[in-house]
What we know:
CATH topology of the domain at 37-109: SH3 type barrels
Shape: elongated
Order of helices and strands: HHEEEEEE
Structural class: alpha+beta
Strand order of the largest sheet: 4-3-2-1-5-6
Number of strands: 6
Distance between the termini: 57 Å
Number of helices: 2
CATH class of the domain at 37-109: Mainly Beta
Amino acid sequence: MSNYSSNSEDYTWDKIEKYQKENKIDPNTNVQQQTEISQNRKTLKKWLNNQFRIKMTDGRTLIGLFVCTDAAANIILGMTSEYTEGGGEERLLGLVMIPGRYIVSIEVDETHIKDDDDPEGERETTPTQEPIETNIV
């Protein structure tokens, strides 16, 4: 009987390790950290193809559609326009990659984001632009 439980436990651990690898879960993180990561990923998915306003360290502001990000806080925007501090003309850039180290602040236009609690979009929303906290040093 002990052989059976040993094999069963090995099988269970193999399944857990396989799940962790497939879902890129670090076995050293606790459940609270994993839940937080999952919530952050949901938020990022919710923001895909929504307008971002990014202020950079050199004073420029880039406005474009959020395409993706990575662990280094680099951001890719599509259909991007550039504005300078001096109020110069808008400059169309298209697809841009913004290194995270040059980002001062990010604002998200959440007027067109689908709400999981309101899939039909029946709830009236008011336009908001919430600054995103950036922990970039």
